[in-house]
């Protein structure tokens, strides 16, 4: 994949825009085969975009959420599976140094991303637990061993699994009074195994497979952040803003891809009984305007909230959840609007709009899901 046209002078969103155009060319083939986008990740590495949110002191670009959201929206327009891997990378690397991790561990992960383009993601969801946001203790267990810990368990929906260098694994200890928290796991460690289980409607090349940990030996210091379960209640406004707004930006990018395709279709389509392009019909112009309305609202919502985060005043987690929910529904409605305009052409596998529809529907699955976002907001209003 050629990126010779991407000069260091170009801004990160400009670099992302150029890459997105390239990624779009083979996103369909990757989707059809469910293949991890190794070439896309390599291109992002060469373009200096994998360490976008790594603090400058660790060798990264140190960019804030507003720039990161623009980059994610562009990459989501080209290949949302690649974009989802990048969402997780950016969110983790932007917030690690603000938590309770030992400084040496933060430096290890951050410099790995900056110097070698290493990928990292948090692995939290389990077959029985579901998402930890809904409560419960993980079945993945760390037991004390000679010189450290031994980790065993299974994580599902582990985005980017086939490209990860590090996993931040949510687990419980085997102590009499269990603690719960994050263990840093190198994916090169003995006992880490990927089970290629990801076979879904959309985001098929995101490599969100199961990861199995079989008695993985970890140094004592790799227990990055352990707390009593009750100490994990709620997620800070900053952390929830990063993941929520980047997810919103990702699916806004998918909606833009759908808009661009239908605009091209309406311009090129000249029915014999009409004698002119469909784009010249006011009814089509109005419908396309309704699609653009939803996208424009999303961009304003995400941009303003991201600016607040960068200014040190992140919205409450309940508000971020609402923005993620509204942006997701807007993106889905935008793509569905394009589908209605295209008719049978929209569901033909030879046209990318069919893939955009499958991909954008995945936005509803990411936490916080609709019920959680609305209940949290309602409880906040009620003071509960």
From TrEMBL:
Keywords per UniProt: Flavoprotein, Oxidoreductase
InterPro entries attached to this UniProt entry: Acyl-CoA_DH_C, Acyl-CoA_Oxase/DH_mid-dom, Acyl-CoA_Oxase/DH_mid-dom_sf, AcylCo_DH-like_C, AcylCoA_DH/ox_N, AcylCoA_DH/ox_N_sf, AcylCoA_DH/oxidase_NM_dom_sf, Mito_Isobutyryl-CoADH
Domain Acyl-CoA dehydrogenase/oxidase N-terminal: 23-91
Keyword Secreted set for record: no
CDD domains found in the cross-reference section: ACAD (cd00567)
Record GO terms (molecular function): flavin adenine dinucleotide binding; oxidoreductase activity, acting on the CH-CH group of donors
Keyword Oxidoreductase: yes
The Acyl-CoA dehydrogenase C-terminal domain, residue ranges: 245-367
Ranges where the Acyl-CoA oxidase/dehydrogenase middle domain occurs: 126-216
Name of the protein in question: Acyl-CoA dehydrogenase
Lineage per the UniProt record: Bacteria, Pseudomonadati, Pseudomonadota, Alphaproteobacteria, Rhodobacterales
